[in-house]
Please model this.
Amino acid sequence: MTTISNTQYTLAQTLWQGENAVVRNVLLAIAGSMALWVSAKIHVPFYPVPMTMQTFAVLMIGMAFGWRLGFATVALYLVEGAIGIPVFSGTPERGIGLAYMFGTTGGYLVGFAIAAGTVGWLASKGWDRNVFTTLAAMIIGTAIIFALGLAWLGYVIGWEKPILELGLYPFLPGAAFKITLAAAILPFVWKLAAKREN
Model:
């Protein structure tokens, strides 16, 4: 029986106890990849550009599932996209499969998996249990996504282009909103879990 005082347990393990771990992880990975699919397709009106909730979903999955399952879930999502399922934002209109993944957004997609693993590892250290450490973890995860995304974008279109204006600045307000939302939700869910245990 897991206990929420042990920071080795993820939020998913704490909320979903008693099930065969392999079955639970497979079901969570499938559900998580579907959540990523949906989050990529929903465009929320925002300033200065509409946003998807995909980075929010990536980082929430990483922190809730832990680094192994979080990374595996995002990797499953990337495999789904690589084989031609139109799971990414802008697919199939802007292409599908590996052709899409090697386009301008490829670095962001790789960043998703690394960020999910990173914030999942931080969550295993208890960073998802209070607002300030959750906020820090989300900033780190978001920075990883942007860093890899911008590096790839510069490689693909050329560093002489306005890379930051194209791939960073318009998305910072949305990123700040999603980081703040996650920092409010995760510690709150842990408090609910603690009440349930008691």
Notes: Residues 11-197 form a domain with the Arp2/3 complex 21 kDa subunit ARPC3 fold (CATH 1.10.1760.20). The mean pLDDT is 91. The chain is about 70% helix and 0% strand.
